[in-house]
Each structure stands twice: as structure tokens, then as C-alpha cells.
Amino acid sequence: MPAEERTRIMVKLDDLLHERRMTLTELADRVGLTLANLSILKTGKAKAIRFSTLEAICRELDCQPGDLLAYQIHRD
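and the corresponding C-alpha cells:
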């Protein structure tokens, strides 16, 4: 990859929560995660996500993994 390109996985959790009129606290309770860990994911600071966590979030938000995650390329 050329030095002027940067890639990033974007987490669109905030958009999905807003569309479903659900709070982060409510989702945390439903999927069995701490609010702090879910907040790290929401803000894009997470380095990884377990498939079981992804599955639980998708189940509760009635979405597909591609609705939650996006691949983005930044060109400088």
C-alpha cells in the first residue's frame, strides 16, 4: 500500500442505535457487555471484536455485520 493511503474500519454503531431509538446502555444490557467496552467500540477505539460480540450486537439491532462495519480508505 502506498504511504499516502491509510485504511480504517469504521464502526457505525451510533447510526444504528439512533435509527432504532435505542441507547448504548440498553444495548449493553441486552448483549451482556459493559457500557465502557461498548463505548470503546462505538467510538472506534477498539482494536478487535469477538465474533460472539458481533453476533450479539447484530441480533439485538436486527442488522448484518456490514451494516455495523465499513472499510474506508483515506488518500493523502
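(Above: one complete record from the training split.) Strands lie at 5-11, 69-75.
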